[in-house]
Amino acid sequence: MFTLKRTHTCGALRAADAGATVNLNGWVEARRDHGGVLFIDLRDRYGKTQVVFKPGQTSGPLMEQAMLLRAEWVVAIRGSVRARPAEAVKKGVETGEIEVEALQLEILNESKVPPFEVTEHVDVSDEIRLKYRYLDMRRKPMQRNMMTRHRIIAAFRESMDQQGFLDLDTPILIKNTPGGARNFLVPSRLHEGQFFALAESPQIFKQLFQVAGMDRYFQVCKCFRDEDLRADRQPEFTQFDLEMSFVDEGDVQAAVEHAVSNVFKKVLGVELKRPFPKMTYAEAMDKYGSDKPDIRFGMHLVDVSELAKASAFRVFSEAISTGGVVKGICVAGGGTMSRKEIDDLTTYVKGNGAKGLVWLKAEAGSLGGSSAKNFKPEELAALREKMGAKDGDMLFFVADERGRCKVALGGLRTHLGAKLKLIKEGTWEPFWVVEFPMFEEGPEGKPQAKHHVFTSPKPEDLQFLETEPLKVRARAYDLVLNGVELGGGSIRIHRKDVQGRVLAVIGLQESDIREKFGFMLDAFDFGAPPHGGIALGVDRFVMLLLGLDTIRDVIPYPKTQKGQCLMQNAPSGIIPRQLDELHIALKLPPLEKKT
RNA sequence: GGGGGCGUAGCUCAAUUGGCUAGAGCAUCGGAUUGUCGAUCCGAAGGUUGCGGGUUCGACCCCCGUCGCCCUCGCCA
Questions:
Q1: Which nucleotide is nearest to A84 (CA to C1')?
Q2: Å separating the CA of residue A40 from the C1' of nucleotide B24
Q3: Helix (H) or strand (E) holding A439
Q4: For residue A593, pLDDT beyond 70
């Protein structure tokens, strides 16, 4: 029986409702039995309301029924709203001024004792949370995360609609095109021996929308990548995806800024300054050692290679003579660091590929520390000057091959920013990283696309395409916020000849190009407009706005680091008949390989 | 595939150098309790120390293997 359908949610009632007779539906979160009076906290996603059963006012049978209630039972209650006695008002709770005096109770469902207490007050391991995700999501933090996720997506959609974008979907089952992220494969029953891939992004389809004249497409879409997981990477994740025609970089960026700003305004009440600033890739790497720097604190990387070249300190001079660089950072007030802390930092940079960490303390108008003896006094003075150090500061240097030096020192900068709490929390400084290189050096020195093969080179760099590909800059842009890459996009190639040249640079044979991208190039034969777009990671976006450090907490049903669903126990084997239908034979590695 | 951390009661954790009956808080169950709200008080029950092997007089602790969760490198255009 379910007759007492709710008239109010568990978060709705206020002092002004006193006297009303209402129905509430929800879960029993807590039960406080005082021998006479019995309190029940009733919970739904809107809040909690205290229900009270009082001897004298509550009938005997109803009291008996109420005594049965346990945590997580689902009930419907009819009762009258009462203002609480002044001394019993619960401050800081929206429904704290009232309670509902029960008149009637329907037990809609009982519950086993849950594996963990369904309250935000207890810590539960990820493993247990994922196994019982439906219980985890009953708790306030996950409810908040899911509601925020919804509001972010809604605000994004609202902006897209306002700007005239069409919400169109694209296939999940698509052609397998090796290269880039590994695809999940789906065998085709109707075509024996053939496979679909799950879309790793709608990239090609959204570009073909532009050829189709569907100017201004967007989608909130699932993408699938069969790669190893991280705190911010799941095998299936969600993107804000958009593409527009007859545009340049500025048009795409403006559209995204409108949407991102709307999200911040609607969800956080924060007005972002537009347009977002831009930083070139070269500057990001030079000053921060990262293509997604956290610019909420300074501590820039300083190149001291000129000083290092002639240095008596061989670690420095040899790094330069072998073609490397020496860079440093200045930690304001870091002079008080202990030897142990410095050792930990050394371990940290070594983990990022550096050979070691040189440290010098700014003190007594010069530089000290165990490495200081390797330098002449005037060298120390010059270093101090170049690094802008004051007494009490700590200087760290990494001498290494250019790329490794930036990565190691950039990593150290980020690490120190968090460790020393240099980051201004609650500040939002989104910006664009632009002028990415078109290619990067792949294995065996072969150029490979840094963004993707449909990214347009800058026209003025086209002349180097075949001769010095690594020098070519792309019309690509990444949106970076608080050290997180929120997404990236580009102006695409819309001319078949240029597309062919780019594919050739990365070493694709004519036949490969036909097989993989033939339909795309064919489409370009029929009048492709100039176009461009971007994709943003929804999960990362939500994580960032909520100040969390894993996207698992903003995805309703995420996978573990081994890519499994602990609730369903997926993936799992299939029965022989299913394999037969697909004409698939398993070839498993031997179970045990013991010698 | 590599490196690291963790795995003890339903949950979160403790257990000295390898040593006595493996403990605590919460949850659960029973009792008490008429204004609590993460109620309180009294009591009870609850353990294959992830699993398998080894070393030892003796293993939660040491060794080998294995499974799981997490972080990370590779990888993720």
A1: B35
A2: 29
A3: strand A439-441
A4: no
Q: Which nucleotide is nearest to A448 (CA to C1')?
A: B77
Cα separation values, A191 from A175, A228, A517, A583, Å: 13, 30, 21, 10
Rounded CA separation A382/A392 (Å): 17
Q: How far is the CA of A136 from the C1' of B29 (A)?
A: 25
In whole angstroms, B75 C1' to A182 CA is 9
**Protein residue closest via CA to C1' of B41:** A34
Measuring alpha carbon to C1', the residue closest to nucleotide B69 is: A127
Q: Band of the pLDDT at A530, cuts 50, 70, 90?
A: very high
DSSP-based three-state secondary structure for A497:
helix
Considering all nucleic acid strands, name the nucleotide whose C1' atom is nearest to the C-alpha of residue A551: B70
Helix (H, G, I), strand (E, B) or coil at A206: helix
Assess contact for A521 and A484: CB atoms under 8 A.
no
pLDDT of residue A26: 97
The spacing between the Cα labelled CA in A246 and the C1' in B48, in angstroms, equals 69
Q: In chain B, which nucleotides are within 7 Å of a protein Cβ?
A: 1, 10-13, 26-29, 32-40, 68-77
How far does the CA of A352 sit from the C1' of B62, in Å? Answer: 33
Cα–Cα distance, A386 to A366 (Å, whole number): 12
Nearest nt (C1') from A93 Cα: B37
Q: Are A523 and A208 in contact (CB under 8 A)?
A: yes
Which strands, in side-by-side order, build the sheet including A195-198?
Answer: A173-174, A195-198, A185-187
Place of tokens 């206020």: A14
Render pLDDT for A446-477 as a digit per residue (tens, 0 to 9): 888 888 889 999 999 999 999 999 999 999 99
Domains present along chain A, CATH in parentheses? 15-109 (2.40.50.140), 297-419 (3.30.1360.30)
Identify which of A513, A502, A503, A431 has the alpha carbon closest to the alpha carbon of residue A461. A502
Split at pLDDT 50, 70, 90, the class of A595 is very low
Nearest-nucleotide field for A57 (CA, C1'): B34
* Residue A367 exposed, middle or buried by CB count within 10 Å (0-12, 13-18, 19+): buried
